[in-house]
Amino acid sequence: MRSTFMGLEASKRGLYAQQSALYTTGHNISNANTEGYSRQRVNMSPSLGYPGIGLNNPKTAGFIGTGVEVSSVERIRDSFIDKQYRQETNKLGYWESRSNAVTQMEDILNEPSEYGLAKSLDQFWNSLQDLNVNPEDGGARAVVVQRAVAVADSFNYMYNSISQIKENTGAEIGILLKDANSVLQQIASINEQIQAVEPNGYMPNDLYDARDTLLDELSSYFPIETTNVPSGGNSLANAEGSVTVSIKINGDTIKLVDGKDFAQLRNSSSNTAEDGVTPTNMVTGLHIVKINSNGTETYLNNDWSIRGTKTVNDINDFSNLGKFKSLVESYGYSTDGTEDVTKESGLFPDMLNNLNKLAQAFATQFNEAHAEGSDINGKKGQVFFVNKSTELGTEVTAGNIYVSENLLKDPNLIAASDSPGEDLTAVPPITANPEPGNGKNALNLANFKTDTISALGDISVQTYFEGLIGQLGVDGQEASRMLYNTQSLQQAVTERRSSVSSVSLDEEMTNMITFQQAYNANARMITVIDETLEKIINGMGRVGL
Amino acid sequence: MRVTQSMLSSNMLRNLSNSYSKMGKLQNQIETGKKVTRPSDDPVVAMKGIGYRTELNNVEQFSRNIGEAYNWLDTTDDTLDKVNSALQRANELMVQASSDTTTSDDRKKIDGELQQLREHIQNLANTQVGNRYIFSGTKTTTPPYQNGVGYVTGSNPEESIDPSFEKSIEIEVFDGIMLKVNTTPIQLLNDIDKMFNDIGKDIKAGTTGADLSKYITTIDSNMNELLTTRADIGARQNRVELMDSRLQSQEIIATSRMSENEDIDYEKTITDFITQESIHTAALSMGSKIIKPTLVDFL
Q1: Smallest Cβ distance to A106: which of B39, B169, B171?
Q2: ipTM for this prediction
Q3: What is the per-residue pLDDT for A310?
Q4: Where are the domains of chain A?
Q5: In Å, how far are A34, A387, B24, B242 from A102, measured between CA atoms?
């Protein structure tokens, strides 16, 4: 026999369930604009019918419904889309950072323009042509020296500015790894909380969301792979468990977070390095360490077994892209994982090397041509472009190329004439025979801009520089095209994810009405039962009253 | 597909920012008049641009060099013309002097004028363009004629002429095309000077008219040689003029090639800009209509 008040109980459950749903709707509306929030749904299911199953259960016809119960509150999310999202974010992170690096370099080289190296080379050439026409003119000579200073300045400026952004990129790598390390720690801490909550039969939806947001962030840095590990105990069937995060390196995966344990990333192989993450030289690879309770660090193997020597995970082995790889590729890395400087490659180091090569070939060739001639007093041409610190024509780089101090002081030393310079050691000795009106060597110097140089691979300074700009342009174009493509792809995935998980206010409003009305109906039901009971209590057994 | 407010607003934001970046690019193009502002906009255009700029720069420099070549050649021609006039006058005087009717006193007067002509030619030999002696070969800061020394350098007047005084000065007027701009008639000037010297001596010595008449031939031969030199200058002047007109057309070609390569087509770019602007306005007004209402507004 069922209880008299059974209907009241059933409707009360209804009230509670609808109320939970209504509150969850409120939660959804409140979080409509929360980054990484996925909408939640109250899963309702009918509570067990009456009577319960048993040998001595009352014999009544069938089960009578006992109302509703909230089985779980679930977030609506598609983990497959998450996976896609992270893959695209990874690519986007790479191309965004690469496009940024190339853009910065383009800004520095500033071509095509009226102010770049090409222009200062042109002006230098003009001044030498003018010197050829007016070799005895002090003004023309002074202009040549100043134009040469401008060329040297252009080289210095480009070299220093690119070195500067290279340093900045190094600092960015440091910040990125610090950030990644902090994210790893946070994921581990969320895992720990989830492991504590789930075995009690709860669904920590908001913790899942927080963890997914962190994973999204991590995936923009480097390619990651995640696997879920159930927490056990009384966990619900659809509980997600803790997550194991691995970094993907050349088909291999290296665990970074395992439950509440986490590893930290270092770019340096030495514990004594300043902060372990900001590179000071080219990047050789990634190292994983464990932070001990006393704050010391132990370097780990890929499988987290502890070993004394350091493991290097070569940056070349990164199977996918990511911001970290792009930053390292810009900053400079070792192509074979060793610290051999000749194995350095990268966007900035390559450009610096090319500029050095150009400056060196330019200076050497120019100095040679200059030594062929004689100055206004018939003396042999001196070294023209020098290494700023040694004042010698050797080891000239883009960073230190400068016009020799002597020529700066006395432009008459420019060897504009092609007459043989004074050489008292020659047999027979050549005495100084000044030819102030002879500007033929100035012309040789001018023409060497278009002469091929073997050190540059038999092309001229002009062509070599054009080649550098062309390469940079192609790199930049590729980066911005890929950026656009990956952005569209990521946008498409984001859209799909929003379509599944984001809060729709219209939907929530409709749900609100649904749940509110259901709540009202339940309340009405209680009134109905109240009235039926009223009939029993107050209206029965009062025949004739 | 389920579509939510956040999707609409993020789409709208993305489209608006795309539209802004397109407008920004067009605006940049209109303001600078250039198709590319950085190599990645179009690597080929950028690379070619550097080449064309250099080419145009070269042509401009060569035009400047041509101006200098004109200056040299015109001055040289003009100076030698004056030398020629002086020689003509000397010729007339010598014809007069060699006549037997001319008295020895008259001859001395004629010699006086001849020596003035000699000095005139010496001055002409020291003609300068700017501060350069044009007849000094590559020793442009040394006057070819020095008082008491003559047309030679060094302390010994008997010494042969320093070869530097006969070196040519060449100016590049086009890629690899050199033009000799100076003339080195120092030997000729020296000969003329010597001739005047000899005439003076002979007249002072009272040589007869018949003997003096041989100088008429000498003057003639010197004038002939001068004429040859001037013909050469004339030929070079012609060449410079040809080069000049070639450079002018080259400049136009180089400029238009550079412009074709990197300048925008204003009509097209402005039309594109206006189109983009109207798309942007439409996107904005539609956006404000779509984003605003939700069911909340109607409940």
Answers
A1: B39
A2: 0.81
A3: 56
A4: 6-76+504-539, 84-92+167-338
A5: 34, 29, 20, 47
